[in-house]
Design brief:
- With 298 residues, the chain is mainly β.
- The chain is built from no helices and 27 strands.
- The strands form six sheets. The chain has a seven-stranded mixed sheet with strand order 15-14-25-24-23-20-21, with no helix packed on it. A six-stranded antiparallel sheet has the order 3-2-12-11-8-9, with no helix packed on it.
- The chain is globular, with a radius of gyration of 23 Å.
- The protein starts with a strand and ends in a 14-residue tail after the last strand.
- The relative contact order is 0.13.
Length: 298
């Protein structure tokens, strides 16, 4: 007999401006309260007085989410003040004018199907065997090692890239990233070349290609070589000097200040320790491109 759990809806709030810039918060609550009060699910700093203690809330209604404003200084959705509005993925929320900004993303995750089977009969006792010397462990190959190279071709697949205050949505891949005007996503970062990287969809996965020929693009601090698949929570660096992104799954890339270092990683994705980062007054030297850009809709 098989049973299926109901789907889970996950809300991601990606902070793109304000004191929590670069942070990504995940919620599965039916009501997400926002403000300075300690009870709020998304709690903003207590000294940020332009934000009310109970500023707003996001309420789940079936598979939809409604924003309700409770503040004195207002909540803005895509630049327009809103007292109550139904949200859609990609909306940018601003809590008070010139206040903190987040991008709203909602994802329905299907739960795994559980199969109930009777326990197997007990095995007959086996005769004792002499101990054996274990052989050296062999690392597991990545999935891509056992599959033919993917073919890059136009395909309908969603892609959302958040970089600073910029939020771009694409409906067709591949998307080329670089400094050149011919790129679909242009980044004026000093470390990038004209056509730097390409994101495409093949074999039911998202992939990243390094177009530089210099092994500049890294996933989890390891060069991708020619190309490699992107998996949820991968840390992506277009160069050693940035920009840095986190792949959230479902075709979503969000800028992060610097790739996180994990103590352990799945087989085939070992993450070496990184040298300490030099800082001044808590700010990382070098790195992210700070020029402000307007939010662009495709």
């Amino acid at each position: 007999m098989t049973t299926k759990r109901p789907p889970q809806i996950v809300v991601q709030l990606v902070h793109i401006a304000g004191p929590m810039k670069g942070q990504i918060q995940n919620f599965t609550d039916s009501v997400i309260t926002i403000g300075r009060h300690p009870s709020c699910k998304m709690r903003l700093p207590a000294d940020l007085t332009t934000v009310s203690r109970q500023h707003a809330e996001i309420v789940r209604e079936g598979n939809q989410f409604r924003l309700v404003d409770h503040s004195a200084n207002g909540t803005f959705v895509n630049g327009k003040r809103a007292s109550e509005v139904v949200l859609k993925s990609g909306d940018v929320l601003e809590f008070s004018e010139q206040g903190p900004k987040v991008s709203f993303l909602a994802e329905i995750r299907e739960s795994a199907i559980e199969e109930e089977t009777p326990p197997p009969p007990p095995l007959p006792p086996k005769a004792a065997e002499p101990p054996q010397t274990p052989s050296p462990a062999t690392p597991l190959p990545r999935k891509s090692d056992a599959e033919p190279p993917p073919v890059v071709q136009p395909v309908k697949a969603p892609l959302i890239i958040q970089y600073g205050p910029t939020l771009r949505s694409f409906r067709e891949l591949p998307v080329t990233i670089g400094k050149g005007s011919q790129c679909q996503f242009v980044l004026e970062h000093p470390a990038l070349v004209a056509q730097h990287a390409q994101i495409f969809f093949a074999q039911d996965r998202y992939w990243i290609r390094d177009l530089t020929g210099l092994r500049a693009v890294h996933i989890n601090r390891r060069p991708v070589g020619d190309q490699a698949p992107l998996e949820a929570n991968d840390e992506l660096a277009l160069t050693a000097q940035g920009p840095y992104f986190k792949f959230l799954g479902g075709g979503r890339l969000a800028e992060v200040a610097e790739p996180a270092i994990e103590e352990s990683a799945p087989p085939g994705r070992d993450v070496p320790k990184a040298p300490p980062t030099e800082t001044i007054d808590g700010k990382r030297l070098g790195g992210l491109f700070s020029k402000l850009r307007n939010i662009v809709k495709p």
